[in-house]
Amino acid sequence: MVQDVKSRLEKAAGGLNGGRVAATVPKFKWPYTSKEVKTVLEELSRHKETINLALTADGLKTMLQALSNQTERSNGLAEMRASIKEIQTRIIMDKDHQKILDFFMPHNSKPNLKMSLRLRHPLTGLWLTEGDEFKQWLRSQNGKLCLSGIPGAGKTALAGLMIEEVLKETLRSTGAGCFFFCDYREPKTQDPANILSSLASQLARQSNGAYEILAGIMQDYTRKRAFQCLQIPQNYWMY
């Protein structure tokens, strides 16, 4: 059909030269009768319907796939969220363990995670977690994934979704997962020492080896503090 339209129009424009009408051609003659125009329009309409149907089918397939993924996600969501505490407390806990772990966690980001999960719409972020870039990051070592956007764009919600996926992966393995939310409204969440110690505390809750390292650091710290308390000030004998 396209070739036929092109051929007729070129034939009808035979008197056109360089975009200008030759003096011997009084006017441009339309190469189609009203009946032929109707036929062409009907054919174009059929092509349009075919294209729309194809797009709808492809969009429906994508939507069904997204809903299927969301159904699977929702089915395991309650279990996963209930297991967050279990993931982060794999070692045997007692009062001494808890004291050390709490000392190294000046800020707990769990409420931030719960809020981001609660505020996020179930289908939000599937484009991220179902993408190859995110899956490659999830499987990589020392990988980095940066999210940028204006305030209120949804970076926190996406961060919560990413953490959720990491914790789900942790459930399937013997690895460890930790996270931290920096909040511009809370200066202590921007302190590198607080960030690193909180991450270390989370790892120590999931690994006896990590806990032993943290306990050793705590022991050295306590010994140094005790030694400083025992030191006599230089001006003591002046009184």
Low-confidence stretches: none
Query: Could you tell me the strand content as a percent range?
Result: under 5%
The main sheet orders its strands as 1-2
Class derived from helix and strand content: mainly alpha
Shape: rod-shaped
Mean of residue pLDDT? 75
Give the terminus-to-terminus CA distance: 109 Å
Q: Kindly give the count of domains.
A: 3
Task: Write a structural description.
The protein is an all-alpha fold and 239 residues long. It folds into three domains: 2-61, no CATH class; 94-107 and 180-239, no CATH class; 110-178, no CATH class. 63% of the residues lie in helices and 2% in strands. A two-stranded antiparallel sheet has the order 1-2. It is rod-shaped. The mean pLDDT is 75.
List the helices and strands and how they pair.
Elements: H1 2-12, E1 16-17, E2 20-21, H2 34-87, H3 95-103, H4 110-119, H5 126-129, H6 132-139, H7 155-172, H8 192-204, H9 208-230
Helix pairs in contact: 2-7, 4-7, 8-9
Features:
9 helices; 239 residues; 63% helix; rod-shaped; 2 strands; single chain; 2% strand; mainly alpha; 3 domains; two-stranded antiparallel sheet
Concise synopsis of the structure shown:
The chain is built from nine helices and two strands, in the order αββαααααααα. The protein has about 240 residues and is mainly α.
